[in-house]
Design goal:
The protein has 195 residues and is of the alpha+beta class. 43% of the residues lie in helices and 13% in strands. It is built from 6 helices and 6 strands; from the N terminus they run H-E-E-H-H-H-E-E-H-E-E-H. It has a two-stranded antiparallel ribbon with strand order 1-2. Strands 3-4 form a two-stranded antiparallel ribbon. A two-stranded antiparallel sheet has the order 5-6. The chain is globular. About 5% of the residues have low confidence.
Length: 195
């Protein structure tokens, strides 16, 4: 099962559809809305500490209040709309991103300059938003945003990274989603033949 796809927030299954390291936290963040098991790790105060400590430990959530969690959920939903290619998603993300002021920080690593987005404000969730918006920007710039896909199985809708050469991935995993969808298609074809 995919990372976080399992309802057990204490273990981290391997995920063959994980994203490259610079996009994996973004993908995991999008999956805080776990539609497979019907819980929202940003809204669920009981699961929140386990989720962030285990799956997104690089983010400091200390001091994030309920309003901050709401702003992060709004950001997640806007990015998810972009990944789902919903009409108006780019404009929606622009509006939501404007509520998370960031600035460009340039530092030297070795012999070259490296730029990253950092929070311009001091809200506790600002650093998380800046990091996620930086990942979105990078994925848009190099076209990898198109490789972040949502599982075609309506009961799942898990965000995965499509690493296929021709970008033809449809499911987060073969088991169970691909198998279920193939079986449904087979039964529909058989029903159509029987008339």
């Amino acid at each position: 099962m995919a990372r976080g796809h399992d309802s057990d927030t204490t273990r981290l299954p391997t995920d063959p559809k994980s994203a490259p390291p610079d996009l994996e936290d973004l993908r995991t963040f999008l999956n805080t809305d776990n539609r497979y098991y019907g819980f929202d790790a940003l809204d669920d105060t009981e699961r929140r500490p386990l989720f962030w400590a285990r799956w997104l430990p690089a983010f400091d959530v200390t001091g994030v209040d309920e309003e901050g969690w709401r702003r992060l959920a709004e950001l997640r939903d806007a990015i998810r709309a972009l990944v789902c290619r919903e009409p108006g998603a780019a404009e929606r993300l622009s509006r939501v991103a404007a509520r998370h002021p960031v600035r460009l920080a340039v530092e030297t690593r070795g012999d070259r300059p490296v730029a990253r987005l950092v929070p311009a404000g001091n809200r506790p969730e600002a650093a998380i938003a800046a990091t996620l918006l930086g990942a979105v920007r990078a994925a848009l710039d190099d076209g990898r945003i198109a490789r972040l896909r949502v599982c075609d199985r309506a009961e799942c809708q898990w965000v995965y990274y499509d690493s296929t050469k021709n970008r033809s991935g449809r499911w987060c995993s073969s088991d169970p989603c691909g198998d279920v969808m193939k079986a449904r298609a087979y039964r529909a074809r058989q029903a159509a033949v029987r008339g």
